[in-house]
Specification:
This protein is of the alpha/beta class and 219 residues long. Helix content is 45%, strand content 14%.
Length: 219
């Protein structure tokens, strides 16, 4: 299978931050009077924030959900953001893709200062061709908007792009656009869950993708 474009999710895929994200969400939910077990939050990690809250906190109305998401974002940025790290091997992988003639885009719900901090951790701005972020679309994954935009920005056919993500929602978004999906176990989901969502292959984390992608980049 040959690809000329690679679309990467960021949180849980390139940046090791899912435990911090979920911990900040759990703490914020508790403040709003909605205690939710960590294991339940894990099931919806990577899903559009409002959609996830509709499921895990059905007692909250739209106004309360917006307040909660704002509070959670502030808590995460203040308490946890400086503790996250990039996964090993990201730049090496990106260099390999670029040297083979591939294009790279990020497709992430995050934005603003948070996204800028992630960029600084990756130290790979010179290798990233395009970015589709939360500022560009109304909804996060599994809505296909981010992946569709990333494909458009890369100017590649959907079947010549590969979506790399750590959640079933990345795979579902990719599938809706006709983009093959690669899954990573670094977000806390099982191999079975990622395959069931449509991933054609699953790796432990982003640094292990080299062997899978070897020979899979079209010039």
């Amino acid at each position: 299978m040959l690809f000329s474009g690679f679309i990467f999710d960021v949180e849980g895929t390139l940046i090791d931050c899912i435990p911090q994200n979920l911990q900040s969400l759990q703490e914020t939910l508790a403040e709003f009077g909605v205690p939710v077990p960590y294991e339940v939050l894990q099931l919806y990690s990577g899903m559009d924030g409002d959609d996830a809250l509709r499921i895990i906190a059905p007692s909250l109305d739209e106004v309360a959900r917006k307040k909660l998401m704002k509070a959670q974002g502030e808590r995460y940025q203040k308490k946890y953001l400086e503790t996250v790290r990039a996964f090993a091997g990201v730049r090496r992988l990106f260099e390999g893709i670029k040297s083979a003639g591939g294009k790279i885009s990020l497709a992430t719900d995050c934005q603003g200062a948070q996204l800028r901090h992630y960029h600084s951790l990756l130290s790979a701005d010179d290798l990233i061709d395009q970015i589709a972020c939360g500022d560009d679309v109304e909804k996060g994954k599994p809505d296909p908007g981010l992946v569709r935009l990333a494909v458009k920005k890369l100017s590649v056919a959907p079947n010549k792009a590969a979506m790399v993500g750590d959640t079933p929602y990345d795979a579902e978004a990719a599938k809706a656009v006709g983009v093959p999906a690669l899954g990573l176990l670094s977000g806390g989901f099982t191999r079975a869950a990622l395959l069931e969502a449509g991933c054609f292959e699953v790796a432990q984390e982003v640094g292990a993708l080299g062997l899978i992608l070897d020979g899979a980049t079209a010039l």
